[in-house]
């Protein structure tokens, strides 16, 4: 089942097109990475999907219900954490979630039990500190709990790990990962490593246009590896190998550290055939020969550079 569907979704601001004919079909339970540089149109897209912006053209369906600007019917199935969430600083986490639940019509024992479960999920159970004393990471975790208070089928997270320290990022990503299969997560970010760590599928957006949509593994299969890691017995042997390959038509560059070398090649298949032959003919002592799988960052640059 597709829980998010768009058709030719477009948003223009005067003469500027922020989002251009965006088509989405996102399956239930997916952690969906919405990836792009700052200014790519990610936040504008989220604002349309959540009914905050009126599209210039195109249509949106959330869980089969058409989203219309100013109407809330289709929005009952979503939770939303904006890029800069706001809280009542004099409240603690429990009080804030209780208020959020009551605004949605939740009351009684069921609401209290839900709050306790959410606070445990985000690592804030028993924390009596007022929100004004929270770190940014703690606020983001509370924001995720608030987005889940109505048991939505989809939560939209707009740059939830931006500006967090490494510990805060890890804590937020761990929470998101725990939601896999329980709720659909629309995860907007410009941080490539975060997408690679937790997302099932990724869409790359650039200048308002969908560049590519795929699983991480399919991307890696499409944009082949171009690096080989080699370890020989000595630095002298590695220098011998370097002199033998540096003029090859497939050789691009190398990074040499003692008796280890990373080779970048324009033809991975040719390099994989010729390098072992050279090692054998030169009587070199091979300790390691590994094709280096491309990172999402390298894939992103390959995709964007082919536009």
TrEMBL record:
One annotated GO molecular function: ATP binding
The keyword Amino-acid biosynthesis is annotated on this UniProt entry: no
CDD domains: ABC_DR_subfamily_A
Entries under InterPro entries matching the protein: AAA+_ATPase, ABC_transporter-like_ATP-bd, DrrA1/2-like_C, P-loop_NTPase
PROSITE patterns: ABC_TRANSPORTER_2 (PS50893)
UniProt keyword terms in alphabetical order: ATP-binding, Nucleotide-binding, Transport
Domain ABC transporter: 4-232
Pfam family, one: DrrA1-3_C
Homology family: Belongs to the ABC transporter superfamily.
Name assigned to this protein: ABC-2 type transport system ATP-binding protein
UniProt organism field: Natranaerovirga pectinivora
């Amino acid at each position: 089942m597709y829980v998010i569907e768009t058709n030719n979704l477009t948003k223009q601001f005067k003469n500027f097109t922020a989002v251009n004919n965006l088509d989405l079909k996102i399956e239930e339970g997916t952690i969906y990475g919405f990836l792009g540089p700052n200014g790519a149109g990610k936040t504008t897209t989220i604002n349309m999907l959540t009914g905050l912006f009126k599209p210039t053209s195109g249509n949106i369906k959330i869980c089969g219900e058409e989203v219309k600007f100013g109407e809330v019917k289709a929005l009952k199935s979503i939770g939303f954490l904006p890029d800069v969430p706001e809280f009542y600083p004099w409240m603690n986490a429990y009080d804030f979630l209780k208020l959020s639940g009551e605004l949605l019509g939740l009351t009684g024992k069921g609401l209290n039990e839900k709050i306790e479960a959410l606070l445990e999920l985000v690592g804030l159970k028993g924390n009596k500190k007022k929100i004004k004393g929270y770190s940014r990471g703690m606020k983001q975790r509370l924001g995720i709990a608030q987005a889940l208070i109505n048991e939505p089928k989809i939560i939209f997270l707009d740059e939830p790990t931006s500006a967090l320290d490494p510990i805060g990022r890890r804590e937020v990503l761990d929470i998101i990962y725990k939601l896999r299969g329980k709720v659909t997560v629309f995860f907007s970010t410009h941080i490539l490593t975060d997408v690679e760590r937790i997302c099932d599928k990724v869409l790359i957006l650039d200048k308002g246009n969908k560049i590519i949509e795929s699983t991480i593994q399919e991307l890696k299969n499409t944009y082949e590896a171009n690096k080989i890691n080699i370890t020989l017995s000595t630095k002298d042997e590695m220098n011998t190998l370097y002199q033998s390959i540096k003029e090859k038509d497939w050789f691009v560059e190398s990074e040499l550290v003692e008796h280890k070398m990373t080779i970048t090649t324009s033809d991975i298949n040719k390099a994989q055939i010729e390098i072992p032959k050279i090692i054998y003919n030169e009587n070199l002592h091979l300790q390691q020969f590994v094709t280096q799988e491309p990172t999402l960052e390298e894939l992103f640059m390959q995709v964007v550079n082919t536009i």
